[in-house]
Amino acid sequence: MKNTKIIYFKDIVATGNGNSNQGHLTPIESSKDIPFDIKRLYYITSVPEGVTRGYHSHRDLEQVLICMKGSVCIKTSTPFEQEEVLLDSPFKGLYIGPMVWREMSRFSEDSVLVVLASRFYDEKDYIREYEQYEVLAKEYFDESR
Ligand code: T46
After folding, report:
1. How far is CA 123 from CA 45, 59, 96, 119, 127, in A?
2. Looking at ligand 1, which atom is closest to the CA of residue 63?
3. 56 catalytic, yes or no?
4. Which tens digit of pLDDT belongs to each residue from 17-45?
5. What is the distance in A from the centroid of ligand 1 to the CA of 70?
């Protein structure tokens, strides 16, 4: 789907001096492992069962969503396409670029959703009304075809 992609991160299994498993390490370097400079990080935790979040798009913001613990379902859509991704691993991220509508649901009780963002928080970058989004996104994706 346009303006989204799955990114897989390195999974370094630390073995220390011997051969015993000492856990996993995942490095994420700005502009290398993700396609932008990281300006902001936030995380979403303790989401009660049945709650859905999102229901908006961003005009310019780029983000990578990583479910560090547990799982969460991310539905992304434009007026032309839609996709659903289950984030259930700290080694897998979902990149979401500009003008993509997103909805987050099925947060597991223990889920920790970390988001890396390309810009500081700016409410003016949000489009929260679907009707307004549809008009702007039709223009945006038509032009980039
Ligand atoms: C997104 C999805 C994946 C701030 O004050 N600073 C921040 O950096 C953020 C992200 C939010 N807020 C405030 C704005 C609202 O008053 O926190 C409140 C909850 O934000 P919102 O309803 O937008 O949360 P979600 O979970 O629907 O969406 C968030 C991000 O806002 C959004 O950019 O793509 O996570």
Report:
1. 21, 10, 17, 11, 9
2. 34
3. yes
4. 677 788 999 999 999 999 999 999 999 99
5. 20
